[in-house]
Amino acid sequence: MECTVRWHDGMSFVAETGSGHLICMDGAPDAGGRNLAPRPMELLLAGTGGCTAFDIVLILKRGRHEVSGCEVKLQAERAEVDPKVFTRINMHFVVTGKNLKPEVVERAVKLSAEKYCSASIMLGKTAEVSHSFEVVEA
After folding, report:
1. How far apart are alpha carbons 100 and 125 in whole angstroms?
2. Cα Rg of the chain, angstroms
3. Are 76 and 126 in the same domain?
4. Are 86 and 126 in contact (CB under 8 A)?
5. Same domain, 120 and 52
6. Same domain, 44 and 81
7. Which helix (H) or strand (E) holds 70?
8. Secondary structure letter of residue 113 according to DSSP
């Protein structure tokens, strides 16, 4: 995996991923940015949510469960001093489908958290990561 990040101007940067996609990042106005794009740490949190949601959908689909939606709401706290790492992250999943049993969704969440989601497992080295979920009938 590779990525190139180039300084654009002010505190604006453009990343080009190994797969050829572009991601813009910008700083807060008090840090010299213009608030035109997400902060790098926001992207890290969003990427973690995407990684774990991807796992859960894939696990449920492979189990032939009728999943039609998956949303994860992440709330994170950061350290007060540098390095301002994430210290707490809560992930709340809202999984929608037909006849989804809570124990099946719980297993998918647990598998992602403990085995498959590289991003959340990595962040778990500095942060207390918690998970909750709800199942919505489609």
Report:
1. 32
2. 17
3. yes
4. yes
5. yes
6. yes
7. strand 66-78
8. I
